Amino acid sequence: MESLIKIPQFFLWGFLFLGFFVILTISVPFCLKKCPYGHFLSKKDNIVIIGFCILLLVLGILRVQISEFNIANDKLSKLNDKGQVVMTGVISDEPDIRDTYQKINVKVLDSIILVTTNRYPEYAYLDKIKITGKLETPTETEDFSYKNYLMKDGIYSVMGFPKIELLSKEHSYNIYSYLYEKILFFKQEIRESIQHNFSPPQSSILEGTILGDNGAMTNDLKNKLNITGLRHVIAVSGTHVVILSSIIMSLLLAIGLWRNQAFYIAVIFICVYIVLTGLPASGLRAGIMGVLYLLSQKLGRQSMGIRVIVLACAAMLVLKPLLLFYDVGFQLSFLAVIGLIYLEPSFKKIIKIFTKDKAENLVGIISTTFAAQVFTLPIMVYNFGNISFVSPITNLLILPIVYWLMVSGFLTAILGVLFNNLGWIISFPCWLLLTYFVKVIDFFSQPWMAKTIANISWIWLAASYIIIIFATRLLNSSRLNKFF
Q1: pTM for the predicted model, two decimal places
Q2: Gyration radius from the chain CA atoms
Q3: What confidence tens digit (pLDDT) does each residue in 156-194 have?
Q4: Whole-Å CA distances, 56 to 6, 62, 67, 472
Q5: I need a labelling partner for 258 at 20 to 30 A (CA). Which of 42, 134, 322, 354 fits?
Q6: Do the domain assignments include residue 371?
């Protein structure tokens, strides 16, 4: 709410005291009186819930205002658009390397600058550099706010192609930075192994699928993936990890493991995968949502699962409140999990009518895919304006091979790192899967198979989710459940 409407402090403090008053004057005396003898009365329960809702809403707004205050008083951003500056800092994350340039996060004092520079020379995590150039405020247009996109990650200043002087490659470590550097080193070794064993576009697809690395991907390939609705497959997104989590669980259960055993193995797999991608913020959020989805399945109760998800999202927003409106990945992660909790069971029952309890694993993949896509499609269309008419078909063709593509890709890449040519020897199964992937996107990437819509109204977005929620409640109703 605070991100959309500015609320004066006077009203906030008034609502804060109102929330405390409702909770203290109604719930506390009532608890002291009634707890030993029975349950609370429903009306007073509702009043207490309203009190807590008011309290949490106000605290959330205050947290956003604190974040906005910190942004407005950032010392480095005050130098934006005011001429040339000379600064010394440390590269605080893995450089994002593209075809002709690279982007690096440079930490100066307590602020981070996003620096765009030439492809070479290459820089590394924790390198100490001196930059000379102009600090600028990130751009904003009618279609996209780069400022808000970076602001959610604590970046308020950018610098384009400055003069850079490498001061030191001797890194000072704490435990976190030491482990993170080793992870990035191993990730680079895997990347080089992939590029050694596969040629583009297969190598680009595999890098994106197992490492979440899209830097080497050509614009033509990106456009084909957008048309076919398969871009999410080669990105470390919440939707990707959640779907992958469900697929892993289905496969582990299919080979005869108990649900508890499958849960722990799947969680370990996701954690290893997120670490291997270099622990990006988007990957961490995706991993959290994936683990929470598995936890909701393990608990076996829909209501309990959704409470865990909501609490986790609330905890993330306490740390970074701007994620809610400015991070599409966060929105997609949350919505994908909601879709799998509420919609996937109904889809599975409907599909089983036609399959007659055959191909259980395939049924799980299909129901998972459609449930996640139904809940994430409106947000995707609203933010990117791209509608793929063939997305359901392409996802059905590709998602069943994602697990095996990742397994064979990991084996090929890791063995290539350890034993050099051994990776090439066992790369044939992975090459077959990648060739199939490329053939699918080539066949389904005709321009008429997707449509781009500009300036989509938020009213359309709200109406879409009202319809989805109504349809989901209808599918979960007792009458339909008896029918299925």
Answers
A1: 0.72
A2: 25
A3: 899 999 999 999 887 766 777 777 778 888 888 888 888
A4: 17, 10, 17, 27
A5: 354
A6: yes
